[in-house]
DNA sequence: CTGAAAGCGCTAACAA
DNA sequence: TTGTTAGCGCTTTCAG
């Protein structure tokens, strides 16, 4: 017999206590808790009163043990600290709360996911489903997940995998729109700084840029397309390079806001003005984009909404017990601030 | 009898299956799992083999139900997306992993914690302990936590509460050191932009600045002390104000890096140079501080280490079952980059 | 060193 | 409408 003496004193009240206090069997208490229709109104009220009075809160472990479900989902992310992921999580949080689920957080901290059994152990650690925000393609895990028929959703994932359920944004269209906007402003000499090219989103954004340029018959200048990596310092350095050419661009389109911020700093350091001398446009619409002077015109990604949609999909799968496939792409939107102006003025 | 048919197929193997396969009782399997010494080496090996072969992973709910412990801690934070919190979480993560604990994430998303019973429900949601990263003082929750003898640790908390266990940084000393550094460089006209003054850390930093100024008998200029709020845009605006004075400061000390970044942008926009015309110093040492051009000299907060220490404290409390008190203050450290120079040159 | 078995708190089937 | 009860998978005591 286990020592039931020094059990956590925080969850002391059980349904048995409630049952005794309310003068019913503990099965009835269970029914009340689970909103079973088969309880007389009067009894239900009485039990509820006792529950409140005694401060009863169900024991999760016991519930999970018998029901086989934990009402927890696992969220696997590479790292925190990027505003980007925070936004997505906010969306996840919202839907989780209304659906009464909890979230376990797992971070890979950029290191490649360790053992091949990692995901497997996540599953076994007792979550009902998994949301993965892993830009790089973790192909083998997805395979395992699929073969186990375990509910999962990918967020903003850009790998080879195209079977599992996923939600992303219209990277191609967003970049196309931004480029078209610059062109509409009269710009022809538009430089582009890419993201990390091993990511699908970077490729899509580049493709969107190229497509718009092509559409308006503006020839691409090889030197004006610089390979970046989403880091601010890279934006800075790239802008310096671009501005050192005798043939300078009049607008710079960075594949994310952080690089655009770096571009803005570089332009300032050179002694040029934004948007007076050069227009700058970013991608993501992170919080800081609206904080700079001038405000950064950028392509908004509906990150919060992506988190919400993903969560909704996951919950649906978990409740219905069926695995879906197919990717949702949420629309991006151009946010006009003050970092671009028409050219020539 | 509950339907045990469509149970999660992900955790099908139980100790009973293992026991049968290994030809022992399931009590013995349990002993092997829990590293009980009372198992013959040979038996232990055989069971372990079967465990691996069958891919057995213990059922958490069942374990928790009988042991009364979940091996999960709860982390309550205001919001994500601030690099600041990401760093702390990284530290927490590291220690949690070595101690084999999992983390449930709860975000308040800036809104005031809802019902007064919120913390209580966190506790009941089945975590063994709580880490709170809540700059504002949630006094009543702490009281409840203490009265319940529930293990918790505060991180970087700056409220009235001084009883519970907490880990923070030497805000006063850090600000003092930074100010002293500027003075040592020859600066006398040093402006200061505060953080949100309802936070203890902001007050401590201001006090550190004032103390250093006093120590070197430099009179404070009221107009040069501007009340800020940790936002980049506020740094920008404040710097513009400061530079509009006929009597201008030669150095600006911002209470955090984000505001310092705003200051740098403003100075650039005015057409002045950093550090040529004006020195800038920040606080926090966020990732971006090393990414700017020039690099931002700042006061490093050992955020990751704060997370680690807090976690260690919490684990200790949970394992020993005793509540400790007392705050740990981890030392800050001045990080010299290129945003300050001696004055006059 | 090992087996047997009593629960942990709860859900859900079965009776009544 | 309610009470009764068999487990969920596991830990831990008690015998042996």
Describe it.
The structure is a homodimer. Chain A has about 350 residues and is an alpha/beta fold. Helices cover about 40% and strands about 15% of the residues of chain A. In chain A, strands 2-1-3-4-5-11 form a six-stranded parallel beta sheet, covered by helices on one side. In chain A, strand 6, helix 9 and strand 7 form a beta-alpha-beta unit. In chain A, helix 1 packs across helix 2 and helix 10 packs across helix 11. Chain A is elongated and about 90 Å long. In chain A, about 50% of the residues are buried. Chains A and B meet through helix 4, helix 5, strand 2, helix 6 and helix 10 of A and helix 4, helix 5, strand 2, helix 6 and helix 10 of B. Chain A binds a DNA duplex (16 and 16 nucleotides) through helix 2 and helix 4.
Which descriptors apply to this entry?
Rossmann fold, 3 domains, disordered N terminus, 345 residues, homodimer, DNA-binding, elongated, 434 Repressor (Amino-terminal Domain), six-stranded mixed β-sheet
């Amino acid at each position: 017999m286990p020592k039931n003496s020094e059990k956590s004193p925080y969850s002391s009240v059980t349904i048995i206590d409630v049952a005794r206090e309310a003068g019913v069997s503990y099965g009835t208490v269970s029914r009340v808790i689970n909103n079973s229709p088969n309880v007389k109104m009067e009894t239900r009220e009485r039990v509820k009163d006792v529950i409140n009075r005694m401060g009863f809160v169900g024991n999760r472990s016991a519930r999970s043990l018998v029901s086989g479900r934990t009402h927890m989902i696992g969220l696997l992310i590479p790292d925190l600290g990027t505003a980007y992921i925070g936004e997505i999580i906010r969306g996840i949080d919202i839907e989780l709360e209304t659906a009464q689920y909890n979230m376990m957080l797992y971070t890979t901290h950029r290191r490649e996911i360790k053992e091949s059994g990692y995901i497997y152990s996540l599953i076994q650690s007792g979550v009902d489903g998994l949301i993965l925000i892993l830009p790089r393609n973790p192909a083998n895990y997805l395979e395992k997940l699929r073969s186990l028929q375990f509910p999962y959703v990918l967020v903003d994932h850009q790998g080879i995998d195209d079977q599992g359920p996923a939600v992303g944004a219209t990277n191609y269209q967003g970049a196309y729109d931004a480029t078209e906007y610059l062109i509409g402003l009269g710009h022809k000499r538009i430089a582009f700084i890419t993201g990390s090219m091993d990511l699908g989103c970077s490729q899509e954004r580049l493709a969107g840029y190229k497509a718009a340029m092509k559409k308006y018959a503006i020839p691409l200048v090889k030197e004006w397309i610089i390979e970046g990596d989403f880091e601010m310092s890279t934006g800075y350095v790239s802008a310096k390079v671009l501005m050192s050419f005798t043939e300078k661009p009049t607008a710079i389109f960075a594949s994310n806001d952080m690089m655009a911020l770096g571009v803005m700093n570089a332009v300032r350091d050179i002694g040029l003005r934004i948007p007076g001398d050069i227009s700058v446009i970013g991608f993501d619409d992170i919080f800081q984009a609206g904080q700079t002077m001038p405000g950064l015109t950028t392509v908004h990604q509906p990150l919060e909404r992506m988190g919400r949609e993903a969560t909704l999909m996951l919950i649906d799968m978990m409740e219905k017990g069926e695995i879906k496939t197919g990717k949702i792409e949420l629309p991006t939107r151009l946010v006009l601030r003050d970092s671009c102006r028409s050219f020539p003025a």
